[in-house]
Amino acid sequence: MVKMSIIAKNFQNVMGRHKTAPVNKNEELVNQSNNLILYNDEFNSFDFVIESLVEVCGHDFDQAEQCALIAHYKGRCTVKTGSYDLLKSMYDELTLRKLTVALED
């Protein structure tokens, strides 16, 4: 019986130290990571997709080429991760270039 009370007391002490304040739901949504997804299509050439990823997303050539190949063979590829505000302008520009993209959280 003594061992149980000591273990229980230690457990309460440990658990009491790990309490955190409630999360503000608005802050959680603002800081949430989002993904810019490139989908495969039958309209755009590899060269155009690679050039667009370099110019719009700031990829180097090798990274853009890998993203284009992944999208081609797997149907989609996450090309950038970040805040909604950062990705929205990239999404808009890639859409203007007629690439098939989406923003996901």
Instruction: Report helical residue fraction.
Output: 55-70%
Overall strand count: 3
Q: What is the typical, i.e. mean, pLDDT?
A: 82
**CATH-defined architecture:** 2-Layer Sandwich
Low-confidence stretches: 17-23, 25-29
- Which structural class do you get from the secondary structure elements? alpha+beta
Q: What letter string, H or E per element, gives the SSE order?
A: HHEHHEHE
Strand order of the largest sheet: 2-1-3
Number of H- or I-type helical stretches: 5
Strand content: 15-25%
- End-to-end separation: 50 Å
What name is given to the CATH topology?
Ribosomal Protein L30, Chain: A
Biggest sheet details: 3 strands, antiparallel
For CATH, the homologous superfamily is named as Ribosomal protein L7/L12, C-terminal domain/Adaptor protein ClpS
Number of domains: 1
Overall body shape: globular
Question: Rg to the nearest angstrom?
Answer: 23 Å
CATH class annotation = Alpha Beta
Describe the protein's architecture and organization.
With 105 residues, this protein is an alpha+beta fold. It has one domain (23-104): Ribosomal protein L7/L12, C-terminal domain/Adaptor protein ClpS (Ribosomal Protein L30, Chain: A), CATH 3.30.1390.10. It contains five helices and three strands; from the N terminus they run ααβααβαβ. Helix 3 (46-57) crosses helix 4 (61-74). The longest helix is centred in the first third of the chain and has 16 residues, at 2-17. It is globular. Residues 17-23 and 25-29 have low confidence and may be disordered.
